[in-house]
Amino acid sequence: MKIYIAQVALTVLCAGLLFVLWRWRPGIAGLAGSRETQRLEHAWRLWLACLLGGVLASAVFALAVDEPRETSLGYLRILLSTHAGEDSWMPMLRASAFLREHPEVPLYQGVFFGQHVKFQYPLTALLPLDLPQQLFGVPPEGVVRFFQFVSRISLVAIAVVFMQLFMGAIPAPPGGRVLHLPRRSVFALFGLSVLSVAMFYPLLRSEYHGQIQTLMTLAAGLALLAWQRDQPRLAGLMMGLCCIIKPQWGVVVVWALLRRQWQFAAVATAVTAAAGLFAVGVYGWRSVLDYVSVVSFLSRHGESYFINQSVNGLLHRLFFNGVNLQGAGLVWSGTDFPPYQPVVHLATVATSLLMLGMALVWRMGKRPSVVDLSLVMLTLTMASPIAWDHHYGLLLPVFAVAFPMALRQQPWGAWTLPVLGVTLALSCQSFVGPTNLLADSAWNVLQSYQFAGALMALALLYRLSWMEQPRAAEVRAGRSEPAAVTVY
């Protein structure tokens, strides 16, 4: 009852904030009136209006079906609590313990296939958790608590990255002038960025579960920020860190090589290769290469549970193949996978190849902008057989790039703002309560609403990238300069 009352109160508060934004159009504190600052305020105001609109729609639907928890507002309390999930860390601890206790047995055969623990990461991802235990005798629980703390703090860092990306996507004043922001305005923008993180459902879910995905979202955001500021080596470093967690992201190196982005590709490859060689030195070739069997199994089976927002998850549910809402008597099964379904497997492979192929060959003659890097990052997430809802936390830094540009370029004409609002609502908010009521019918395709929103975001990125191409001055320069901002 307390949760329901709190949810109603927060819903009313969101409705009030949305009304204030739309009716009175408040500005950013401390900004002097000018054409540039008006453009800045306009972009932030519309961003918050679209975000709040999605939060409000999600909250109303959740209350209507008596599922007040399954919204951004329902998960918001984790930011103010001591709750720390172990969704990534627990399987990592099990894997680490198995390596010490059974060094003669290939890790994945023993843990993933033998114990049915869903440790689906490469051994490079285990290094930061395992080395402090081996080298310094830090207890496993202490290492986990440290990473849980870092994960919580990283939400603040993601807010800073979001603010910088958003500002960089707004055009600089003409004539090379610098847009000066008072310190008061910077604090206000930082507060709005923190509010954006606090209302972004995929990030909240990631932190609630205790997912390493939160740290990967930060690394991906930093890569976009470095690319926006024309720092390809730093962007490559961040991409390399992402590849350590998800080796399939190595496709971004191929993408960079096709566009002759040598520095980016070299650094990303060097970081990934160094981590791989180090893992071989620590764990041996046998366990490292055994990860291939896990990748093969996951690509064949995927996941049918409703939060798998990919083509694979959509088709499993459409064929009623595997669990949708429950597995092994739990809300989610940590041991079960759907039975092999040839049609689902072939369709998953075909659509993944299609999406990745399009991203790789798209506009190869155009020097890639931050929109293009966003495009390939989002494609890598969506093309995976398993794309949990929290994996779409990546969309926060992507929208920081795309949203201001879309407002300026109007890629869908008069429909641009409504389409942005719908895209944000579907891809970044929860409609789990009402759509899960359709799980036992052919209408369960609506459970893939987040994947549909991500497709709309991907279409937006393609459209924005296409609109960049005809600008001869930008093509010659390599990429448009980010907005120059200083604080005084």
From TrEMBL:
Pfam families xrefs: GT87
Presence of the UniProt keyword Transmembrane in the record: yes
Membrane topology: Multi-pass membrane protein
InterPro entries: GT87 (IPR018584)
Chief site of localization: membrane
Membrane-spanning residues: 6-24, 44-65, 146-166, 186-204, 234-258, 264-285, 343-362, 414-432, 444-462
Entry keywords, A to Z: Cell membrane, Membrane, Transferase, Transmembrane, Transmembrane helix
Subcellular location as annotated: Cell membrane
Keyword Transmembrane: yes
Family indicated by similarity: Belongs to the glycosyltransferase 87 family.
Protein name: Glycosyltransferase 87 family protein
Species annotation: Variovorax defluvii
